[in-house]
From TrEMBL:
The lineage of its organism: Eukaryota, Fungi, Dikarya, Ascomycota, Pezizomycotina. InterPro entries: HgmA_C (IPR046451), HgmA_N (IPR046452), Homogentis_dOase (IPR005708), RmlC-like_jellyroll (IPR014710), RmlC_Cupin_sf (IPR011051). It comes from Aspergillus versicolor CBS 583.65. Its EC number is 1.13.11.5. Residues 10-298 form the Homogentisate 1,2-dioxygenase N-terminal domain. Residues 300-364 form the Homogentisate 1,2-dioxygenase C-terminal domain. Pathway: Amino-acid degradation; L-phenylalanine degradation; acetoacetate and fumarate from L-phenylalanine: step 4/6. Belongs to the homogentisate dioxygenase family. Fe cation binds at H356, E362. GO terms for biological process: L-phenylalanine catabolic process; tyrosine metabolic process. It is an enzyme of class 1 (oxidoreductase). This is homogentisate 1,2-dioxygenase. One of its GO terms (molecular function) is metal ion binding.
Amino acid sequence: TPYVLKDPYQYQTGLGNFLQSEAYPGAIPLVNNHPQFPPFGTRSEKISGTSFVGPRHRNLHTYVYRPRPAFFHEEYHPYKHHLETANPSPPKHLTPNSYNWPKFQSGPDQDLDWTEQRLFGGNGDPTKKTGISIWIFNINKDMEPNVAFMSLDGEALIAPSVGALDIHTELGKLLVRQNEIAVIPRGVKYRVTLPEGKPARGVTLELYQGHFQLPELGIIGSTGLAHQRDFQIPVAYFDGEFVQDQSSRDGVVATANNGPGWTVIARLNYKLWSARQESTPFDVTGWQGNLYPYKYDVARFSYLGNLSWDHHDPSLFVILTAPAYGKAPGTAVVDFAAVGPRWEASEDTPWVPWYHRNTMQEFV
């Protein structure tokens, strides 16, 4: 996509790869993930995205190295539970009717930030790790200083339809613009600001079970649809400085910019909770693993279509899927698809797709 707003950040590429990144050379220990004395006075911390004994190709985890482990924080307390955005009612309204919603207004009628998303709908139960939820964000201001957010319910797929989001995660920074999507793993802290102060709106799809992954290609072959190399993963960013200290083991000590302390706002079972901690959540000097945030430019999707007649199923447009393990083969918890510009040149076939009574619910 030829963006007017340029991306100032650096990235690694390759969704599913085991990656590593250092904010300072030597920040990641060699061989031993948990040395007694990690480099630069840090501590080893592991973020698990799956069970310990899951199959190797689905076993997601990342080691981070930071001066102060994330374990050290005060007790969580309910956060603004008098507001709908912080304490929404779980989706319960079922209907056989189809709905069309009017276009969302260009900007909120009050000042709202990332913590004030609205629950739109969903299914399943986050406490049982089943299903999904859909949240709408329509924001016009940055998150408050020294405030971070995380979801303990699920993995978030963020899709801005207007504007852009500057997302600072524990593992690095992402600029996510219109026509890009980002995925933030469950439990990873991040902070959202608005580039140039311009409003942004869009959708957050929260996945309660499993993780988003690329769909199988089957007889398509080795290429087509979304390619692994087009997914961008942030590089490590340390909110602090590396100070020369000859009395230390490495001659260098990682010192974080903690300031007056931080507030972490967490979503659990739809509700928001907050806790204080002394250290910045963005004090990671280096990380290694296969569980990380990433983003994708939808314009890089390689569309496939027919060369003769008829319509193919919209599964050809799936960018990311979340398999429903234990269900019928090929069943997904959710598929995220994009129907973008492409040639439609089939014979004796109407351009508009046929009427379809789908077994899955669609949110367009």
